[in-house]
Amino acid sequence: MLVAALDRTYRATHFHKPVHMSSSKEHGQEEQPLNWNARLKIAIGSARGLAYLHHDCSPAIVHRNIKSSNILLDASLEPHVSDFGLAKFLVDDESHVREDATEKITKREKTAFYDEYLHSGQVTAKSDVYSFGVLLLELVTGKRPTDASFVMKGLHIVGWMNTLMGENRLEEIVDRNCDNMDVESVEAILDIASMCTSAEPEKRPTMKRVLQMLEEVMSPCPSDFYESHSE
Protein backbone atom coordinates (compact mmCIF):
# COMPACT_ATOMS: atom_id res chain seq x y z
CA MET A 1 0.00 0.00 0.00
CA LEU A 2 1.03 3.56 -0.55
CA VAL A 3 1.64 4.49 3.07
CA ALA A 4 4.18 7.30 3.02
CA ALA A 5 7.23 6.78 5.22
CA LEU A 6 8.95 10.05 4.52
CA ASP A 7 11.62 11.92 6.43
CA ARG A 8 10.27 15.17 5.07
CA THR A 9 6.66 15.78 4.13
CA TYR A 10 4.28 18.59 3.35
CA ARG A 11 0.65 18.15 4.25
CA ALA A 12 -1.98 19.16 1.73
CA THR A 13 -3.99 20.52 4.66
CA HIS A 14 -1.61 23.50 4.47
CA PHE A 15 -3.23 24.26 1.14
CA HIS A 16 -6.72 24.89 2.48
CA LYS A 17 -6.56 28.65 2.22
CA PRO A 18 -5.33 30.36 -0.95
CA VAL A 19 -2.45 32.02 0.90
CA HIS A 20 -1.32 28.60 2.10
CA MET A 21 -1.67 26.84 -1.27
CA SER A 22 2.06 27.10 -1.43
CA SER A 23 5.43 25.46 -1.20
CA SER A 24 7.11 25.51 2.19
CA LYS A 25 9.41 28.19 3.49
CA GLU A 26 13.11 27.41 3.47
CA HIS A 27 16.02 29.48 4.69
CA GLY A 28 13.90 32.57 5.23
CA GLN A 29 12.31 32.46 1.79
CA GLU A 30 8.66 33.41 1.46
CA GLU A 31 6.08 30.78 0.59
CA GLN A 32 5.24 30.67 -3.09
CA PRO A 33 1.75 29.70 -4.27
CA LEU A 34 1.68 26.37 -6.06
CA ASN A 35 1.17 26.85 -9.76
CA TRP A 36 -1.38 24.97 -11.84
CA ASN A 37 1.06 22.34 -13.08
CA ALA A 38 2.03 21.48 -9.50
CA ARG A 39 -1.63 21.09 -8.53
CA LEU A 40 -2.29 18.85 -11.53
CA LYS A 41 0.70 16.75 -10.48
CA ILE A 42 -0.81 16.35 -7.00
CA ALA A 43 -4.19 15.44 -8.48
CA ILE A 44 -2.90 12.79 -10.84
CA GLY A 45 -0.51 11.28 -8.28
CA SER A 46 -3.30 11.02 -5.70
CA ALA A 47 -5.61 9.45 -8.28
CA ARG A 48 -2.92 6.93 -9.17
CA GLY A 49 -2.63 5.92 -5.51
CA LEU A 50 -6.38 5.44 -5.13
CA ALA A 51 -6.65 3.56 -8.42
CA TYR A 52 -3.95 1.21 -7.12
CA LEU A 53 -5.95 0.51 -3.95
CA HIS A 54 -9.21 -0.05 -5.84
CA HIS A 55 -8.00 -1.93 -8.90
CA ASP A 56 -4.57 -3.45 -8.27
CA CYS A 57 -4.81 -4.69 -4.69
CA SER A 58 -6.37 -8.09 -4.02
CA PRO A 59 -8.71 -7.84 -2.28
CA ALA A 60 -9.40 -4.25 -3.22
CA ILE A 61 -9.16 -1.61 -0.50
CA VAL A 62 -11.49 1.28 0.30
CA HIS A 63 -9.56 4.06 2.03
CA ARG A 64 -12.65 5.71 3.59
CA ASN A 65 -10.82 8.84 4.71
CA ILE A 66 -9.51 10.58 1.61
CA LYS A 67 -9.01 14.25 2.32
CA SER A 68 -6.30 16.81 1.73
CA SER A 69 -4.68 16.30 5.14
CA ASN A 70 -4.14 12.63 4.27
CA ILE A 71 -2.20 13.37 1.10
CA LEU A 72 1.46 13.80 1.98
CA LEU A 73 3.77 15.66 -0.35
CA ASP A 74 7.50 15.10 -0.46
CA ALA A 75 10.12 17.68 -1.35
CA SER A 76 9.36 17.18 -5.05
CA LEU A 77 5.62 17.67 -4.45
CA GLU A 78 5.00 13.99 -5.21
CA PRO A 79 1.77 12.99 -3.43
CA HIS A 80 1.47 9.91 -1.22
CA VAL A 81 -1.82 8.56 0.12
CA SER A 82 -1.57 8.18 3.90
CA ASP A 83 -3.54 7.28 7.04
CA PHE A 84 -5.08 3.88 6.50
CA GLY A 85 -6.64 3.76 9.95
CA LEU A 86 -10.17 3.53 8.53
CA ALA A 87 -9.35 1.49 5.42
CA LYS A 88 -11.34 -1.68 4.75
CA PHE A 89 -11.11 -4.53 2.29
CA LEU A 90 -13.91 -4.76 -0.26
CA VAL A 91 -15.81 -7.97 0.29
CA ASP A 92 -18.40 -10.12 -1.52
CA ASP A 93 -19.70 -9.81 -5.06
CA GLU A 94 -21.43 -6.49 -4.41
CA SER A 95 -18.06 -4.80 -3.80
CA HIS A 96 -19.03 -2.95 -0.66
CA VAL A 97 -17.92 -2.84 2.94
CA ARG A 98 -20.37 -4.04 5.57
CA GLU A 99 -19.76 -2.62 9.02
CA ASP A 100 -20.45 -4.35 12.31
CA ALA A 101 -23.75 -3.05 13.62
CA THR A 102 -22.09 -2.01 16.86
CA GLU A 103 -19.37 0.04 15.19
CA LYS A 104 -19.76 3.72 15.94
CA ILE A 105 -18.78 6.49 13.58
CA THR A 106 -16.82 9.14 15.41
CA LYS A 107 -16.38 12.78 14.41
CA ARG A 108 -13.04 11.83 12.88
CA GLU A 109 -14.81 9.46 10.52
CA LYS A 110 -17.38 11.95 9.24
CA THR A 111 -15.86 12.31 5.81
CA ALA A 112 -17.44 12.11 2.37
CA PHE A 113 -18.75 8.57 2.81
CA TYR A 114 -20.68 9.46 5.98
CA ASP A 115 -24.11 10.11 4.48
CA GLU A 116 -23.94 6.97 2.35
CA TYR A 117 -23.06 4.91 5.41
CA LEU A 118 -26.01 6.29 7.39
CA HIS A 119 -28.35 5.63 4.47
CA SER A 120 -27.35 2.06 3.60
CA GLY A 121 -24.88 0.81 6.18
CA GLN A 122 -22.43 0.32 3.33
CA VAL A 123 -19.35 2.07 2.02
CA THR A 124 -18.22 1.44 -1.53
CA ALA A 125 -15.24 2.39 -3.67
CA LYS A 126 -17.48 5.13 -5.08
CA SER A 127 -17.33 6.80 -1.65
CA ASP A 128 -13.59 7.26 -2.14
CA VAL A 129 -14.33 8.64 -5.60
CA TYR A 130 -16.58 11.29 -4.06
CA SER A 131 -13.87 12.24 -1.58
CA PHE A 132 -11.37 12.51 -4.41
CA GLY A 133 -13.74 14.86 -6.24
CA VAL A 134 -13.75 17.09 -3.17
CA LEU A 135 -9.95 17.00 -3.16
CA LEU A 136 -9.94 18.18 -6.78
CA LEU A 137 -12.15 21.09 -5.82
CA GLU A 138 -9.75 22.04 -3.03
CA LEU A 139 -6.87 22.09 -5.51
CA VAL A 140 -8.79 24.29 -7.95
CA THR A 141 -10.26 26.68 -5.41
CA GLY A 142 -7.71 26.71 -2.59
CA LYS A 143 -10.65 26.51 -0.18
CA ARG A 144 -11.62 24.12 2.59
CA PRO A 145 -14.67 21.92 1.92
CA THR A 146 -16.45 23.91 4.63
CA ASP A 147 -15.06 27.36 3.86
CA ALA A 148 -17.04 30.11 5.56
CA SER A 149 -17.59 31.95 2.26
CA PHE A 150 -20.16 29.39 1.18
CA VAL A 151 -21.11 27.63 4.43
CA MET A 152 -22.71 30.90 5.51
CA LYS A 153 -24.97 30.49 2.48
CA GLY A 154 -25.96 26.99 3.54
CA LEU A 155 -23.66 25.31 0.99
CA HIS A 156 -20.62 23.05 1.04
CA ILE A 157 -17.88 23.04 -1.57
CA VAL A 158 -19.75 20.70 -3.96
CA GLY A 159 -23.01 22.64 -3.86
CA TRP A 160 -21.12 25.92 -4.14
CA MET A 161 -19.22 24.68 -7.19
CA ASN A 162 -22.40 23.39 -8.86
CA THR A 163 -24.14 26.71 -8.26
CA LEU A 164 -21.34 28.82 -9.75
CA MET A 165 -20.78 26.45 -12.66
CA GLY A 166 -24.49 26.60 -13.44
CA GLU A 167 -24.24 30.38 -13.55
CA ASN A 168 -21.05 30.29 -15.65
CA ARG A 169 -19.04 32.07 -12.93
CA LEU A 170 -15.79 30.17 -13.38
CA GLU A 171 -13.64 33.12 -12.35
CA GLU A 172 -15.16 32.98 -8.85
CA ILE A 173 -14.26 29.30 -8.42
CA VAL A 174 -10.56 29.28 -9.23
CA ASP A 175 -7.81 30.24 -6.79
CA ARG A 176 -6.60 33.65 -7.90
CA ASN A 177 -3.20 32.97 -6.32
CA CYS A 178 -2.57 30.10 -8.70
CA ASP A 179 -0.36 30.90 -11.69
CA ASN A 180 -0.50 29.39 -15.16
CA MET A 181 -4.11 28.25 -14.98
CA ASP A 182 -5.68 27.79 -18.41
CA VAL A 183 -9.43 27.79 -18.84
CA GLU A 184 -9.63 24.57 -20.82
CA SER A 185 -7.83 22.38 -18.30
CA VAL A 186 -9.57 24.03 -15.33
CA GLU A 187 -12.95 23.32 -16.88
CA ALA A 188 -11.89 19.72 -17.55
CA ILE A 189 -10.83 19.25 -13.91
CA LEU A 190 -14.09 20.76 -12.69
CA ASP A 191 -16.02 18.42 -14.98
CA ILE A 192 -14.16 15.45 -13.49
CA ALA A 193 -14.85 16.74 -9.97
CA SER A 194 -18.52 17.09 -10.85
CA MET A 195 -18.66 13.49 -12.07
CA CYS A 196 -16.88 12.25 -8.96
CA THR A 197 -19.26 14.08 -6.62
CA SER A 198 -22.49 12.98 -8.28
CA ALA A 199 -25.24 12.46 -5.71
CA GLU A 200 -25.83 9.02 -7.25
CA PRO A 201 -22.85 6.73 -6.53
CA GLU A 202 -23.52 4.50 -9.54
CA LYS A 203 -23.01 7.49 -11.83
CA ARG A 204 -19.56 8.25 -10.47
CA PRO A 205 -16.63 6.97 -12.54
CA THR A 206 -14.20 4.40 -11.19
CA MET A 207 -10.83 5.63 -10.01
CA LYS A 208 -9.30 3.84 -12.98
CA ARG A 209 -11.42 5.99 -15.28
CA VAL A 210 -10.72 9.12 -13.23
CA LEU A 211 -6.99 8.51 -13.62
CA GLN A 212 -7.42 8.06 -17.37
CA MET A 213 -9.32 11.35 -17.65
CA LEU A 214 -6.70 13.21 -15.63
CA GLU A 215 -3.96 11.82 -17.85
CA GLU A 216 -5.88 13.13 -20.84
CA VAL A 217 -6.04 16.58 -19.24
CA MET A 218 -2.28 16.42 -18.70
CA SER A 219 -1.74 15.54 -22.36
CA PRO A 220 -0.46 18.23 -24.78
CA CYS A 221 -4.01 18.78 -25.98
CA PRO A 222 -6.56 18.96 -23.10
CA SER A 223 -9.38 18.93 -25.64
CA ASP A 224 -8.68 15.19 -25.97
CA PHE A 225 -10.55 14.87 -22.68
CA TYR A 226 -13.77 16.19 -24.19
CA GLU A 227 -13.44 14.07 -27.30
CA SER A 228 -12.94 10.81 -25.37
CA HIS A 229 -15.60 11.68 -22.79
CA SER A 230 -18.17 12.32 -25.51
CA GLU A 231 -17.68 8.86 -27.03
TrEMBL record:
Q: Where in the cell is it found?
A: Membrane
Keyword Transferase tagged: yes
Instruction: Offer a single GO CC term for the protein.
Output: membrane
PROSITE patterns in alphabetical order: PROTEIN_KINASE_DOM
**This protein's record includes keyword 4Fe-4S:** no
| A GO MF label | protein serine/threonine kinase activity
Please give, as recorded in its UniProt entry, the membrane topology of this protein: Single-pass membrane protein
Q: Which UniProt keywords apply?
A: ATP-binding, Kinase, Nucleotide-binding, Phosphoprotein, Receptor, Serine/threonine-protein kinase, Transferase
- Every Protein kinase domain range: 1-218
Q: Which PANTHER family match?
A: OS01G0750732 PROTEIN (PTHR47989), PROTEIN KINASE DOMAIN-CONTAINING PROTEIN (PTHR47989:SF65)
Q: What is this protein called?
A: LRR receptor-like serine/threonine-protein kinase FEI 2
Q: Name the species this protein comes from.
A: Acorus calamus (Sweet flag)
Q: Which gene encodes it?
A: FEI2
